[in-house]
Specification:
In the presence of PdxS, forms a dodecamer of heterodimers. Only shows activity in the heterodimer. Pathway: Cofactor biosynthesis; pyridoxal 5'-phosphate biosynthesis. The protein has 215 residues and is an alpha/beta fold. It has helices at residues 13-22, 33-38, 49-58, 62-70, 80-85, 193-214; strands spanning 3-7, 26-30, 41-44, 75-78, 86-90, 102-107, 118-122, 136-140, 145-149, 154-158, 171-176, 179-182. A hairpin with a 2-residue loop joins strand 11 and strand 12 (179-182). It starts with a strand and ends with a helix. Bound molecules: glutamine. The site of glutamine has 11 residues, from helix 5.
């Protein structure tokens, strides 16, 4: 079974660990380069993206993680994690940099301020929430949304309700290759389908080396 790390510098690590376990992975909290080196995939939890960037650098994880992403490490970023995976941040402070990897522009705190945190039920066929299936439970906490995507980016979900004004139809879940990102927190409230898809992505990414071993 795949070992999936959860970046454990900030954010709701425990909830992601629980969701990954339920989705059939072996979770591993990651704080050190040696831990990053042994995971088959990594979850970037929510938090505060500029703080997480600083912590990543302080713990000597920023450059190694960038390298592993470039080598094809599957990574799932939620909320602040989505921002870290974005190639571009709209309205970012001049010194905010990201890991990047997904050809998209995100806007931080797009849904409004803390008091505007809310939940929605989304239709998302690629996440197992299509017609005839239960809608996806999505908790938004000072969430970003995606303003623009490149042509290699698959849009997995859009905001449903016009929450906080003008959010209707905004992109809130994307995938590009082995990178997955959601503006919301599926780990809160027991929504399992995003973690299940991610564990599948991690397992698929491991296949080539397994085949090499057996051939
Ligand atoms: N607002 C945070 C940021 O801009 C993200 C919030 C979250 O991760 N829940 O980084």
């Amino acid at each position: 079974i795949p070992t999936v790390g959860v970046l454990a510098l900030q954010g709701d690590v425990r909830e992601h660990v629980a969701a990954l376990t339920a989705a059939g992975a072996r979770p591993l909290p990651v704080r050190r380069p040696a831990e990053l080196a042994v995971v088959d995939g990594l979850v970037l939890p929510g938090g505060e993206s500029t703080t997480m960037e600083k912590l990543l650098r302080a713990f000597d994880l920023f450059d190694p993680l960038r390298e592993r992403i470039a080598e094809g490490l599957p990574v799932y970023g939620s909320c602040a994690g989505m921002i870290l995976l974005a190639d571009r941040v709209a309205g970012a402070t001049a010194d905010q940099t990201t890991l990047g990897g997904i050809d998209m522009t995100v806007r931080r705190n797009a849904f409004g301020r803390q008091v505007d945190s809310h939940e929605q039920y989304l239709t998302a066929p690629a996440l197992g929430a299509g017609e005839g299936q239960p809608p996806l439970h999505a908790v938004f906490i000072r969430a970003p949304w995606v303003e623009q995507v490149g042509e290699d980016v698959e849009v997995l979900a859009r905001a449903a309700a016009p929450a906080g004004g003008g959010a209707d139809g905004k992109i809130v879940a994307v995938r590009q290759g082995r990178l997955l990102a959601t503006a919301f927190h599926p780990e809160i409230g027991g929504e399992m389908r995003v973690h299940r898809l991610f564990v599948e992505m991690v397992s698929d990414a491991r296949l080539p080396s397994t085949q090499q071993l057996t051939s």
